[in-house]
Specification:
With about 950 residues, the protein is an alpha/beta fold. The protein contains 32 helices and 25 strands. The strands form five sheets. The chain has a nine-stranded mixed β-sheet with strand order 3-9-10-8-7-4-6-5-11. Helix 4 crosses helix 5 (about 75-85) and helix 9 packs across helix 10 (about 240-255). Pfam families: 2-oxogl_dehyd_N, E1_dh, OxoGdeHyase_C, Transket_pyr.
């Protein structure tokens, strides 16, 4: 036994009769070392050090046995048992009290009165019954040590119960004991237990709170009477949302927040737009009347999907509010908001989230049911995606969608369980208690400021109407809606409360309703603190990008001297940096490429493209599951020291600010990561934002983002975005899952010059395409079918002159010097299949077949292809579109109408490729190679006599 342990035997409480008391202390120590006195903390630490196999989360039973054994065996222990220490029964009772306090911290939320409808029977939690711990009514007036409870050192059991029930089982149910960080837990405990979960509001603050509830209810009543039967996705039943958002804005402003990015679904959006963001009622009414046409949008969108931005005056100065546009796919907007917040943080030079705050409003069923919620939480603390903590507000209607049974919408007791994965505290609060709601909001905002971590407010309320105003919820939810119809609104309940407290008379309360209605009649802005024409140093001017066209000329060339200068800088390594031999070979090859001693490959061309943009003042952000190294070991933008594991990113040495280049190996997510990058790109036109799929088909996991944001965001919302997608594509015998990036899906989405779809076939093309994307003032998403085997193909190379004198060719004519007048067949293709055709044509020695590559499939370069087919190869009578993909996939069907415009009447257009298939590719190598041989033969055809 150690000397420290022997010395601790002299403590008067250390004996077997006090084992229960010490056991309880040890439980507290396990949960939070700072919760016990320093003497006990040192003692427990010394005890653990005796046996290194014991870790702090082991069951405390063995420790208790040690105490009891110690009491039986030590002389000092026997002396205490004789009367010098605490009475054995008293020690046992004291331990029981400490366990009871801990039980309320852990499970008190299950008994909390958080549901205004009292729909769900609260579970029986035996831990919360004093009798479970051996305490009886006879103990109620007995004083006990309160342990780590933020309260006087000693209280009667009755007083302790009153406090823990008020704090943990009142109108707020707090879940935070799952957090492993002691400082965070103790901070929450102190805020809850010292305040007893009571908002200390002045009479003026209470009147102000009633005004906000009046506004929340008032706009819904006004719209219902003015536009009877029209969908508005009412907030009624959850009106406390408006005071929550007001408090977030105002408290955020006082804490230094300058920009707040808000994401939410459609329910309550119109209310938020009018009462929080300061949208003009006249503008909203015009939308209801069908007379409002948004600027820079063609088709537009329904009014409860539209975004908005405004500026609100706070104690800390103006705060810019940005409400994200979003479709009906509910939670899909979450990562978009986070990406936008990250871009804004960069503009503010804010690395921790002091000045930018993301806020996400969830529905209960959507938060529990949609996987993008989990993916977004997983981003929250990840390098490259961190936004300083998000405030999550769940408008918990307890129903999800009208015909659902609440028991069917999730398997968990709460809809918020997913938040525990990042150890976010969760505060469930009764939506019909506005003061409790306000307290929780203040607590959440202060927690986020203190720890820059996510926090969740679960606003338990209800939905007064159906899913929309034409729905009849009583047909499927008769019991719930019987209660709802009989229940006064939260505004009425709070007005009555203030009348009872003598704060506001009934007539004064009614006057508030009239004032709000009169303001709407006058079409006045009703959001408090709304500012007009506010200028900010952090705003982005998008006007240079509004009138750009896809075919505007731009010089993407780079002199040989600049290329060599950049490569020389990229070659410099920190002193003592030991490269892996294979990486060292790559670096040496790139040195030779810059010198002109070796044809350049794709990795070299791509790296120099980024370096040149960075040198010119642009920024580059590249994310994907293997982006640092590259899925195919082709990029190697992050170098790893073989000696000690440290890293070096050469591209970070090019710009003045190293963070102007970001490359992140992302988590295994497509939907959330692509959403994040889309959000980033919509907030920053001067950063080349790239998302790279590990294989092109992985984009399938993010199809919602592609359909509802990337392809249609400009048409619906006037939202420009220069996001680039790298999707490795090519048929190389890797089976159905790793062959196709589904070109056909992207081409099907193409219209109104909304996106670009490119299939570069050489490193130089890739280089010029990258530079064109940033140097041209045309901010449209770029979808790139990037290569796999071509990365090292002996024919797919370029030379320095291709970069210094070249540009991106939408169409590449035959480069083998065929005589146009001798050509009888022209094969038009894109991507890797060109090299298969080229090699077979060389093998056959054919001069009657020309090979043309279409490098940009959309916007389709009809003029350039027409010039070749109708003039240069006008004597050819056969034009063949050749592709590797099955006939019903690839570019054939979606490009057919373009191709027919590019040929003469005498020319016949045919198809060469795989037969139509339900699967993208075969799974057997021999079958694949035979299919490939056949389609190449079909494309080249027979030799013309």
């Amino acid at each position: 036994m150690s000397g420290a342990f022997e010395q601790s035997l002299s403590h008067s409480y250390l004996n077997g009769s006090n084992a229960n008391f010490i056991e309880a202390l040890y439980e507290q120590y396990l949960a939070d070392p700072d919760a016990v006195d320093a003497h006990w903390r040192d003692y427990f630490r010394d005890l653990e050090s005796m046996d290194p196999s014991r870790v702090r989360d082991v069951p405390h039973g063995p420790i208790r046995e040690a105490f009891e054994q110690l009491g039986r065996s030590s002389t000092r222990g026997r002396a205490v048992l004789a009367g010098e220490g605490m009475d054995a029964m008293a020690a046992q009772k004291q331990a029981a009290v400490l366990r009871l306090i801990n039980a309320y911290r852990v499970r008190g939320h299950q008994h909390a009165d958080t549901d205004p409808l009292d729909l769900r029977e609260r579970p029986t939690v035996s831990d919360l019954d004093p009798a479970f711990h051996g305490l009886t009514d006879a103990d109620l007036e007995t004083p006990f040590n309160t342990g780590s409870l933020f309260a006087p050192d000693r209280l009667t059991l009755r007083e302790i119960l009153e406090q823990v029930r008020a704090v943990y089982a009142g109108k707020v149910g707090s879940e935070y004991m799952h957090i492993t960080d002691t400082a965070q837990k103790r901070w929450i405990q102190e805020r809850l237990e010292k305040s007893k979960v009571t908002a200390q509001l002045s009479e003026a603050e209470k009147v102000s709170l009633l005004k906000r509830l009046t506004a929340a209810e008032g706009i819904e009543k006004y719209l219902n009477s003015k536009y009877v039967g029209q969908k508005r996705f009412s907030l009624e039943g959850g009106e406390a949302t408006i005071p929550v958002l007001d408090e977030i804005v105002q408290r955020g402003g006082s804490q230094g927040v300058k920009e707040l990015v808000l994401g939410m679904a459609h329910r309550g959006r119109l209310n938020v737009l009018i009462n929080v963001m300061g949208k003009s009622p006249a503008e909203l009414f015009a939308e209801f009347d069908g007379e409002h046409a948004p600027e820079h949008a063609n088709a537009g969108d329904v009014k409860y999907h539209m975004g908005y931005s405004s500026d609100i005056q706070t104690e800390g100065g103006p705060l810019h509010l940005a409400l994200a546009f979003n479709p009906s796919h509910l939670e899909i907007v979450n990562p978009v908001v986070e990406g936008s917040a990250r871009a804004r943080m960069y503009r503010h030079d804010d690395t921790v989230g002091e000045t930018v705050l993301p806020v996400l409003i969830h529905g209960d069923a959507a938060m529990a049911g949609q996987g993008v919620v989990m993916e977004t939480f997983q981003l929250s603390q990840a390098r490259g995606f961190y936004t300083g903590g998000t405030v999550h507000l769940v408008i918990n209607n307890q129903i999800g969608f009208t015909t659902s049974n609440p028991l069917d919408t999730r398997s968990t007791f709460y809809c918020t369980e997913v938040a525990k994965m990042v150890q976010a505290p969760i505060f469930h609060v009764n939506g019909d208690d506005p003061e409790a709601v306000l307290f929780v909001t203040q607590l959440a905002m202060d927690y986020r400021r203190e720890f820059h971590s996510d926090v969740v407010i679960d606003l338990v309320c209800y939905r007064r109407h159906g899913h929309n105003e034409a729905d009849e919820p009583s047909a499927t939810q008769p019991m719930m809606y019987k209660k709802i119809k009989a229940r006064p609104s939260v505004r009425k309940l709070y007005a009555d409360q203030l009348a009872e407290e003598g704060v506001l008379e009934s007539e004064q309360s009614k006057a508030l309703e009239r004032e709000y209605r009169d303001a709407l009649d006058a079409e006045q802005v009703v959001a408090p603190g709304a500012l007009e024409d506010q200028e900010t140093d952090y705003a982005v001017d998008w006007s240079p990008y509004f009138d750009a066209t896809w075919d505007m000329p731009v010089d993407t060339s780079l002199s040989v001297d600049r290329i060599r200068h950049l490569q020389e800088q990229l070659q410099r390594l920190p002193e003592g940096f030991d490269l892996n031999p294979r990486v060292a070979t790559v670096m040496e090859s790139r040195r030779k490429m810059a010198a002109g001693a070796l044809d350049m490959d794709w990795g070299f061309a791509e790296t120099i493209a980024y370096a040149s943009l960075l040198e010119e003042g642009h920024r580059v952000r590249l994310t994907g599951q293997d982006s640092g190294r590259g899925t195919f070991f082709h990029r190697n933008s992050v170098l790893h020291n073989a000696a000690d594991g440290s890293t070096h990113t050469p591209l970070k040495t090019i710009p003045e600010q190293p963070d102007d280049f970001v490359v992140i190996d992302s988590l295994l997510s497509e939907e959330a990561v692509l959403g994040f990058e889309y959000g980033y790109a919509t907030a920053d036109p001067e950063t080349m934002v790239i998302w790279e799929a590990q294989f092109g088909d992985f984009a399938n996991g993010a199809q919602v983002l592609i359909d509802q944001f990337i392809a249609s965001g400009e048409t619906k919302w006037g939202r420009l975005c220069g996001l680039t997608l790298y999707l490795p594509h090519g048929y190389e015998g890797q089976g159905p899952e790793h062959s196709s990036a589904r070109i056909e899906r992207f081409l099907q989405l193409c219209a109104e010059q909304n996106i670009q779809v490119c299939v570069p076939s050489t490193p130089a093309q890739f280089f010029h395409m990258i530079r064109r994307q940033m140097l041209r003032a045309w901010r449209k998403p770029l979808v790139v079918m990037t290569p796999k085997s071509l990365l090292r193909h002996k024919l797919s190379t370029s030379v320095l002159d291709d970069l210094s004198n070249g540009y991106f060719h939408n169409v590449i004519d035959d480069t083998e010097g065929v005589k146009a007048s001798a050509v009888r067949r022209v094969v038009v293709c894109s991507g890797k299949v060109y090299y298969d055709l080229l090699e077979e044509r060389r093998r056959q020695g054919r001069g009657d077949v020309a090979l043309i590559r279409v490098e940009q499939l959309y916007p389709f370069p009809e003029a350039e292809l027409s010039a070749l087919l109708k003039r240069r190869y006008k004597t050819a009578r056969e034009v063949v579109w050749c592709q590797e993909e099955p006939k019903n996939q690839g570019a054939w069907y979606q490009s057919y109408h373009h191709l027919t415009q590019c040929i003469t009447r005498e020319q016949k257009l045919t198809y060469a490729g795989r037969e139509a298939s339900a699967s993208p590719a075969v799974g057997y190598g021999k079958v694949h190679h035979e299919q490939q041989r056949r389609l190449v033969a079909d494309a080249l055809g027979k030799v013309h006599g």
